Task: structure prediction
Amino acid sequence: MLVQFSIVPLGRGESIGGQVAKVLDLVDGSGLPYRLTAMGTIVEGEWDEVMALIGACHREALTGAPRALTTIIIDDRPGKADRITEKIRSVEKRLGRELRK
Amino acid sequence: MLVQFSIVPLGRGESIGGQVAKVLDLVDGSGLPYRLTAMGTIVEGEWDEVMALIGACHREALTGAPRALTTIIIDDRPGKADRITEKIRSVEKRLGRELRK
Amino acid sequence: MLVQFSIVPLGRGESIGGQVAKVLDLVDGSGLPYRLTAMGTIVEGEWDEVMALIGACHREALTGAPRALTTIIIDDRPGKADRITEKIRSVEKRLGRELRK
Amino acid sequence: MLVQFSIVPLGRGESIGGQVAKVLDLVDGSGLPYRLTAMGTIVEGEWDEVMALIGACHREALTGAPRALTTIIIDDRPGKADRITEKIRSVEKRLGRELRK
Result:
């Protein structure tokens, strides 16, 4: 399944780039395919491995803040693989042109 | 932690009330405090129990549909209890009036 | 259409109840039907009036904070009215029991 | 402000790639900077122009489906420009390496 998540620590100021870097380290260490976007992290994997990873990132955020807001959006289409690249490629094919990444 | 989730099965028509009823049965059986709203289900509990419950609901949706979109929003403020009722009560106190439920 | 929204000001501490009360005043003044839940505000209306309201709430949040995160979820089913109460009533009918509000 | 949105038409089958291509045409025609990700479209602009664009995409989705679910996530930090590229660049700087796009 394809999952986008973002974690916002509250009570630490408005700049959360340091937080994002720590989360990226955890995501990178998981071995799962991922992309960072300007609005969150997209990762592809099975329910248990993805949720364990997001749980670790969420707990990490709470080590430095009294409150965390975590948003998770799951797009699950069993039997379809490598959707992290295929979804965009399929739109590019319909459009007949490449999109800026 | 306080968690709102909603699950949308795709490929089964636009009416998903039957789906919502099945999910509610699973939520009710979990023993966790919950509320149904017009836009999703709110449940309060620890990460593992809440995620196990949402995972079961997500898999249930996929038994009858080829694709499911699940959105999870987590508001985690460790040390604060019974936030499923307290958050609204605290706003009512500030407003000086009761809100329509 | 049925719309849930929540606005999180960043850079002001972890407690945002005062913010929620101000937003509720704006929502109440709009005359649109609404419900406050533990995870956001649900409002029912047409695109232009709902978005003007959420825009006003978003700008209000930015008067006291350097950054705001606003999440809007829209469920639009043209031709269906009073869904703010009907969606829950229809699930209760299927379940054969009333849900706790 | 930076805005991610995704529009899911309900009642038309589970494959919504054609829908995504139509939305991309509208986004492209708006002249606003944007990125397509595997989970939605990210666009940068002022409230009125971004909401007019998303409203047009939402109405487009409803021409072919009886129901549409639209999710909008706004990250607004007045005074910061070109965040559609800067947010990722700033994380890469902290990490000391480039991320896969």
